Every structure is written in structure tokens, then in C-alpha cells.
TrEMBL record:
Domain of life: Bacteria
Protein name per Swiss-Prot or TrEMBL: Pyridoxamine 5-phosphate oxidase
Location of the Pyridoxamine 5'-phosphate oxidase N-terminal domain: 162-280
SUPFAM superfamilies on file: FMN-binding split barrel (SSF50475)
């Protein structure tokens, strides 16, 4: 393998820095009114179901893990919930046989025309009467950089390549599913122009897929998970196509200069490149994408992500002086516009 590789959290933080504490102030532990409105307008969800070796049984080994990703979708509001409960009809999942009670769950809800996404994480509480029931543990909004870079909402219907390497080269958006050693699933959006998001290299023994790190919400939960536990799953999209590439594999984080240079955009080389030893890659049509009818974009949602972020910061129960001061500073008149301008400036200055 090309090296060097990062195998400790300290090594990861030496490259990308520590996650600022304020990055967690948007987290809440339930579905508030804003999140429910978001879910009520969303036609598409990515979902991951994960288990660690300890959860699957001693015979699997503590270092083992099972991570799977799928899509769910339909008309706006196909999913529903309240408080600490999320419900999704099983027949609206592309892989309705995946969820089982007790699994860790992560999800990503998209809104037409909106760059930001809503992430809802928790545990599968039950699979009964044709419905997936999730006990919600975490809910927060995610920045828009991945969707801006992928130009997801400006796509028109297209016919994507029908072989793996070509499809991966054309892809502009991916949902990355990982799980921590403690069994917490994470589903992270990644986006880039075609040819800069991911590349599939054929090998004698196995295919290797590479993708790059880009500036995002600076939590880097997925990369922390990869350091601790390398199993992952991905869904890659060519915006405008209802085909998806579903990938299973094991990943490692590389600082190799040559590998990173392959993913330079606008003269900026990413700090990390991720190497995935592909165990399986399957191209297929997504019924969820067909039902969601994302392209061409019709009417955009009227939800204001800045308001959602602000409300979640106010609802966050983190204690301490810094958190208290942050909430106080965002309680002044005009705070929503201030957050909106700050986000727009960040998206402009720190896209790559």
C-alpha cells in the first residue's frame, strides 16, 4: 500500500487539527419542531445500519464490524416521527431486509434545493408491521459544502456509465457510512466535481477506491471511526442518474503526497486521501431515487437551515461557560441573519 498511513487519533489530529468544541453545540438528542418539518419535506434519506464485533458475538472478534448503507425515499414526508422516535416504512428502503433491532443507525435527510442536510442517529428499536422504528439519540444539521461542490441540485437527468470504474469517475456525491469501536454509526456526505470525488484503481488481487478529505463541519467523525475500525460502506451517486454504486470495504487514511495530489482542485491539495480496499462494488438502480424524482429540480424547500442551526444551539444542553456564552450571543435580535451570513462566507472562503 502507498504510505504513510495514520493509525492513531493523535496522528489524525496532527494533520487536521482537533475538533473545536463549538462544533458539537448544534447537537440535540431528539427531533424538535424544525427537524420534524425538515423530515416532513424530505423525499430522500440515506441510512446506515451497523454492528461491531462485540455486538455480533464473540466468535466475530472485537475488531470486526458490519456496516451497510442504503437509500430510502418517496414523496415528501415519507418518513415521520416525534420526540425520540423516527419511523420509516420498510418498503421505501432499497434494502428493507437490512435493519434489525439493536443495530446502530445513522441517517442523512436531503431537502430539494437546500445544500445543508439533516443528520439523525440512534438505534433500531424495532422492525414491526412494515415499519422501521428508530430510537433517536442525536440530531443536527450539516454544512452545505458537500452539496455545493457536487452541484447536486443543478443536475439534469443523465445516463451514467454502466461499469464500475466509469461510474465512480463520473460520481459527484457519496454517502460514507462508518461505525466507531463503541458501536456508534456515522453517515457523512462527501461531494466534488466528477473525476475529483473518487477513483477506482484496478489491482491484481483487489480493486482500490480512493477519495479525498475536504473542508466540512470539522467534526470528522468518520475519519476517527476509520482509525479505530476500518470497515465502511458507501453509496456513490452521479447526480441526475437513478443508478448508484454500493461499496463495501476496509479503509485507511493516507498522507501520501502523490495520492493526495491526484485530488487537487482549484490548486488546493487535500490533507488526506482515503484508501478503500474494495470487498464488493455493485451498480444498481435505486428505487428510492426513482420515487424521489430529484432531477430536474422543481420547487426548492422554504426551510431556513440557519434558523434550524440556531434553534438547535439554543436547545443544546452542553454545560460550561463557553456553551453558555455561545447561546447568549445567539439570542440577540438578528442572530439568524448573522448565522446565515457567516455560513455563506465560510462556504465561499473554505470550499476547498
Amino acid at each position: 500500500m502507498s504510505g504513510p498511513f495514520i493509525d492513531t487519533i493523535a496522528g489524525l489530529e496532527a494533520v487536521i487539527g482537533q475538533t473545536p468544541p463549538q462544533m458539537f453545540l448544534k447537537d440535540i438528542d431528539h427531533l424538535d419542531a424544525g427537524a420534524l418539518r425538515w423530515i416532513g419535506q424530505s423525499p430522500l434519506m440515506f441510512a446506515t445500519f451497523a454492528e461491531t464485533g462485540a455486538e455480533m458475538g464473540a466468535e466475530m472478534g472485537e475488531d470486526a464490524a458490519c456496516v451497510r448503507v442504503t437509500l430510502a425515499g418517496g414523496s415528501a414526508g415519507f418518513a415521520a416521527g416525534e420526540g425520540k422516535a423516527l419511523r420509516v416504512p420498510l418498503d421505501l428502503l432499497d434494502d428493507p431486509g437490512l435493519p434489525r433491532p439493536g443495530q446502530s443507525f445513522g441517517s442523512l435527510f436531503l431537502l430539494p434545493g437546500i445544500g445543508e442536510t439533516l443528520r439523525v442517529n440512534g438505534r433500531v428499536r424495532a422492525v414491526a408491521d412494515g415499519v422501521l422504528h428508530v430510537a433517536v439519540e442525536e440530531c443536527y444539521g450539516h454544512c452545505a459544502k458537500a452539496l455545493i461542490r457536487s452541484r447536486l441540485w443543478s443536475a439534469e437527468p443523465v445516463t451514467a456509465a454502466d461499469e464500475a470504474a466509469g461510474f465512480v469517475a463520473e460520481s459527484r456525491f457519496l454517502a460514507l457510512a462508518t461505525v466507531s469501536r463503541e458501536g456508534r454509526a456515522d453517515l457523512s456526505p462527501k461531494g466534488d466535481p466528477a473525476g475529483s470525488l473518487a477513483r477506482l484503481d484496478a489491482g491484481d488481487r483487489e480493486d482500490v477506491l480512493w477519495f479525498a478529505d475536504r473542508p466540512g463541519n470539522r467534526r470528522v467523525d468518520s475519519f476517527r471511526n476509520i482509525v479505530q475500525q476500518p470497515a465502511l460502506a458507501m453509496a456513490l451517486l452521479v447526480p441526475g442518474s437513478t443508478r448508484v454504486a454500493m461499496v463495501q470495504g476496509r479503509a485507511a487514511l493516507s498522507t501520501d503526497e502523490a495520492e493526495r495530489a491526484r485530488f487537487a482542485v482549484q490548486g488546493k491539495v487535500p490533507a488526506l486521501a482515503v484508501r478503500v480496499e474494495v470487498e464488493e462494488i455493485v451498480l444498481r438502480t435505486s428505487a428510492a431515487l426513482e420515487r424521489a424524482g430529484l432531477w430536474p429540480l422543481g420547487t426548492s424547500s422554504d426551510i431556513d437551515p440557519a434558523r434550524l442551526f440556531l434553534d438547535h444551539i439554543k436547545l443544546n444542553r452542553t454545560k460550561g461557560l463557553a456553551a453558555k456564552l455561545a447561546r447568549a450571543s445567539l439570542s440577540v435580535p438578528g442572530a439568524s441573519e448573522m448565522v446565515k451570513k457567516g455560513l455563506a462566507q465560510d462556504y465561499k472562503d473554505n470550499l476547498y
